[in-house]
Amino acid sequence: MSQVPENIHTTFDQLLNRADKEQLLKQHAFCVWFTGLSGSGKTTIAKGVERELHNRGYLTQVLDGDNIRSGINNNLGFSEQDRLENIRRIAEVTKLYINTGIITLNCFVSPTEDIRILARDIIGTEDFIEIYVNAPFAVCEDRDVKGLYKKARAGQIKNFTGLDAPFEAPTNANLEIATDRMTIAESVQAVVALLLPKIEAKN
Ligand code: ADP
Fold it and tell me: What is the residue extent of each domain of the chain?
């Protein structure tokens, strides 16, 4: 648990709580954490899941690496230390959403076991599932959705995951989706099926 610094007086105990908000929204808040190489399909799947859940009346928020890095985390780079700080802040933001009763769909490369454990620890195991969006490096490079692989190969991007920075494949993900062998629709359905029982209102 993190310590509250001196002279900081939190008021969490005086606010309406998560259960009140979940009741209002008729859903159970939750975090789906997508991990995988750049271009593996995290954001594509999250967008599809968001649409499906929205159609069923669930309130969600997609948290995406590029959006976060262009805003709240725009002072962070890709060193080991900055990657940890990036995830720590994201996890804290996720907790705020969860305490507001909202389901978050988090799309972050999150390349190491340490980083994913940090996220899970901050958010809480009971509110967290990890989904490994898995496509071989060569497939992601071939897709090169954002042109990043080309730049990394040309030496214009340092510490690029899978090239000159490691990606540790998750060993205990709740679900693995092989996006080189599944359609987008199949991938989205697999996540929705896993998620629906977890986000139904509890009372
Ligand atoms: P990431 O968010 O992991 O960086 P993106 O979602 O931006 O990746 O890009 C993934 C690319 O892979 C998209 O061009 C998408 O159309 C394609 N793709 C092919 N099959 C799938 C699948 N089954 N699931 C997700 N994306 C897929």
Answer: 26-136+168-198
Q: Answer yes or no: 110 catalytic.
A: yes
Taking CB atoms and a 6 Å cutoff, what residues make up the pocket around ligand 1? Answer: 36, 38-45, 107, 133, 143, 145, 179, 182-184, 187
CA 52, CA 46: separation in Å to the nearest integer?
10
Which atom from ligand 1 is nearest to the alpha carbon of 186? 23
Q: What is the CATH number of domain 26-136+168-198?
A: 3.40.50.300
Token pair belonging to 35: 């991990």
Residues 8-52 have pLDDT tens digits of 888 877 788 999 999 999 999 999 999 999 999 999 999 999 999
Residue 137: other Cβ atoms inside 10 A:
16
Q: Give the orientation angle of helix 80-99 with respect to helix 113-123, to 10 degrees.
A: 30
Q: Which pLDDT belongs to residue 14? A: 78
Phi, psi of 81 (to 5 degrees): -65, -45
In angstroms, the CA 167 to CA 169 distance is 6
In ligand 1, the atom with minimum distance to the C-alpha of 133 is: 3
Cα 133 to ligand 1 centroid, rounded to whole Å: 9
pLDDT value for 46: 98
* Average pLDDT of the residues in 155-168: 94
Give the pLDDT mean for 48-67. Answer: 96
